[in-house]
């Protein structure tokens, strides 16, 4: 996994995610968004999620690379409705990333542990997340 991060294949943009501490789908989406928003090039792609929402768009415009990823995650929880509508944002995110010029390679570390934590917390929500995730990675955009 780290070899892909250090020496990605030509034309791919790797993004590393450690998801061990995540226990619900909304926090997974927030983790992905925070990592993408922390990157100058990827931030422009992700900003399209909030088209029409001036407050969050203004905040996203002011996010600079030096801002801590943790702070971005807190803001996403407080200033957006991602926690309540994780699936919608996840679908929109996948669509936007699928249309991006450079393919994104998400390197997701500790995925099984995250799923186990989700199952322990809310089994039905974990199953819904797994179905959503499976559908997302099987798309041929």
Description:
The protein has 141 residues and is mainly α. It has one domain (2-138). The chain is 60% helix and 9% strand. It contains eight helices and two strands; from the N terminus they run αβαααααβαα. The chain has a two-stranded parallel sheet with strand order 1-2. Helix 2 (25-37) crosses helix 5, helix 2 packs parallel to helix 6 and helix 7 runs antiparallel to helix 8 (123-138). The two termini are 23 Å apart. The model has no long low-confidence stretch (mean pLDDT 84).
Rounded Rg: 15 Å
Which structural class do the helices and strands define? mainly alpha
Tell me, rounded to a whole number, the average pLDDT: 84
Question: How many helical elements?
Answer: 8
Helix content: 55-70%
**Biggest sheet features:** 2 strands, parallel
Number of strand elements: 2
In terms of per-residue confidence, which ranges show pLDDT below 50 for 5 or more consecutive residues? Answer: none
Distance between the termini: 23 Å
Shape: globular
Strand-residue fraction?
Answer: 5-15%
SSE pattern, N- to C-terminal: HEHHHHHEHH
Tally the structural domains. 1
Task: Strand order, main sheet: write it out.
Answer: 1-2
Oligomer: single chain
Keywords summarizing the entry:
141 residues, 8 helices, mainly alpha, two-stranded parallel sheet, 60% helix
Short description:
With 141 residues, the chain is mainly alpha-helical. It has helices spanning 2-6, 25-37, 40-46, 54-62, 69-79, 86-98, 111-121, 123-138; strands at residues 13-18, 104-109. The model has no long low-confidence stretch (mean pLDDT 84).
